[in-house]
């Protein structure tokens, strides 16, 4: 039984010995795209095999994530590909198998589907099917993700649920610049193919003091942002900021104390932290922008009820997007905004 | 010629005491043009032409025979020159098209009648004004989201439409506003779709990239995805035996997508009546063709599929080549690729200034030397096929139409919230769609 699970993931990180004591870090004010640029800069500096490629990355990228890197590291390390997502990922897998640290950029997460076959059938299964002889662990795919206010059908999608169904890859979504840099460096270092979704609405909007030096944050570890005793609230990416507001509203208007958890890694996800929290509070609300049917909240909900059935005080609540394509004009009604989430908390409390 | 007619008519008016003559003076005068209309009315020329209504034909309007009203000071008389003044048809030399795997090429001469010329001018100018109006509305934030403008490439849309029938099929990518218009949708519906109102083509639910019309399949956001669809439509035409073709358009950026080559293979294998058109505007978003493609001879990229390279800034060249290509497909010889070499003045979309990867001089040069509308206008004027005033009248009428359309697009209400879930599936009874909470169920009708 356990044998089938061998060689799906490599558990070792590239830097195998424990890191030496860190010198003091220099934090600089950066927004999310600058923190991504900083992470890529660190990678290209420390790893001579690292290459960055994708559509329009050479001049800096449509979201400015790769500004200045080509001038600094050369055009053989930061280069454009033609318009072919399947080709980009396939090429990235090949480069990674041969030993390069390949960082592929897909211009929008909505365009990742031509590459779906390569990711799911090739990248995810490489190590497993070759019995650990070969792997494409040094592949990282980055893509802007999530709603942005005016993206409509093809510039707003959140496809994490499609990839969550695929053992062999890791799916990571940061919520802020500090998280973005740390998690991206962790993905690049990780010996498994990773998909890193960057919430595009936060590229400029989120600004934090981010260390210039490289640092990593642990993958597959959810972070408890706010301790609480009444309701566990789980979200990721942009939705965390919405839920923070909801938690404040719940405290103020209902006297409800929410425990806010950022899942960070969608696959493999941190079941323990969520379950421990639900055991404490007894109620769970999960929220994401993607459509509700088959969205990742369904997986969390199912696993939590399996483990914490007797601790639940109310049915697990999911506040997600509607089961429609991401709309053009109806976006403000479609997204799970703070009022819908607040309403869900109210219903759970009064169950 | 005109002076002589005017002189004679003025003289006859004075003699007869009537202000309007009801006989055709052209019989008395030698005219060199070929076509004479059934009845020409030579009218007294007022000093300034009054504005013409939006639906007025460009040619002279016949004024009613009630002459009393013409005497009044506030009378409006439409300027007219008799049909006999203009050349009604002319032949123009057009650029030779490079061919790939073809014995013949499209003709080197194109015939243009006056009516056709004015029609092409009108359509191209409408597309141009509509796109500029969309640009304006976008900058005012009335249009949001993504907006890819077509100005500079009008000759492609108009030339293709002139060569195919309305029963033929067309599918393109996201730079679709021009094609939506040429395939029959009114300007106001296009602008209302851009602003997301219920009067829009797709009820406001699609936006810029998703506009559709009878036999026009959009309007597709994912680059290159429309080409296999086009091959499929061509298969349907072949299967139904209706002698129709499908024109599948894509850009120079999409020319590197794998699915295109899959579509080429299927189309060639089964001899589908599909005209694949590559609108090569030299830049795939910000990447010039040399930096994106190993081979920039896009008309040869089909390898075993014959290809033609066409000057896409000349509407006559596009028309002749499309006619040639459509005939090729209709005769059962299989697919054909047409590369239209064209240019877009705006950037890739409204968020792209368009000058970071090309110089303003380049844009200016194309605008001054190869602008499709100017080229057609100059051709017609230098061959005496129309007058400057006529073009001005058309421009004024189009401006008014676009202005009214923008008014409609700004004032029309947005689609009601019930529309959010409609048309997800085809279903008989209203389907229940889950909303953001388990207790929210929305109705979806189809």
- What structural category do the secondary elements of chain A indicate? alpha/beta
Element order of chain B: H for helix, E for strand: HEEEHHEHHHEHEEEHEHEHHHEE
Terminus-to-terminus distance of chain A: 41 Å
Spans of at least 5 consecutive residues with low confidence of chain A: 12-16
Q: Which of globular, elongated, flat, extended, rod-shaped describes the shape of chain B?
A: globular
- State the helical fraction of chain A: 25-40%
For the largest beta sheet of chain B, what order do the strands appear in spatially?
2-9-10-6-5-4
Query: Residue-averaged pLDDT of chain A, rounded?
Result: 92
Radius of gyration of chain B: 25 Å
| Main sheet: strands, sense, barrel of chain B | 6 strands, mixed
Number of helices of chain B: 12
Largest interface: A-B, 41 and 44 residues
| Largest sheet data of chain A | 7 strands, mixed
Assembly state: heterodimer
Structural write-up:
The complex is a heterodimer of chains A (351) and B (446). Chain A has 351 residues and is α/β, with parallel strands linked by helices. Chain A has helices at residues 32-46, 69-73, 85-97, 116-123, 126-129, 160-164, 177-189, 202-205, 239-254, 271-281, 296-308, 331-334, 338-349, and strands spanning 27-31, 50-54, 78-80, 101-105, 139-145, 170-172, 194-199, 207-211, 223-226, 231-235, 258-262, 265-267, 284-291, 317-321. In chain A, the strands form 3 sheets. In chain A, strands 3-2-4-5-7-6-12 form a 7-stranded mixed sheet, with helices on both faces. In chain A, α10 crosses α11. Residues 12-16 of chain A have low confidence and may be disordered. Chain B is α/β, with parallel strands linked by helices and 446 residues long. Chain B contains 12 helices and 12 strands. Chain B has a 6-stranded mixed sheet with strand order 2-9-10-6-5-4, with helices on both faces. In chain B, α2 crosses α3, α2 runs antiparallel to α11 (372-382) and α6 (226-240) packs parallel to α7. Chain A binds chain B through residues 55-56, 59, 80, 82-84, 86-87, 110-111, 113-114, 150-155, 292-293, 315, 317-324, 327-330, 333-334, 336, 340, 343-344, 347, and chain B through 144-146, 196, 204-207, 209-210, 221-224, 253-254, 256-259, 284-287, 291-293, 356-357, 414-415, 417, 419-421, 424, 433-439, 442.
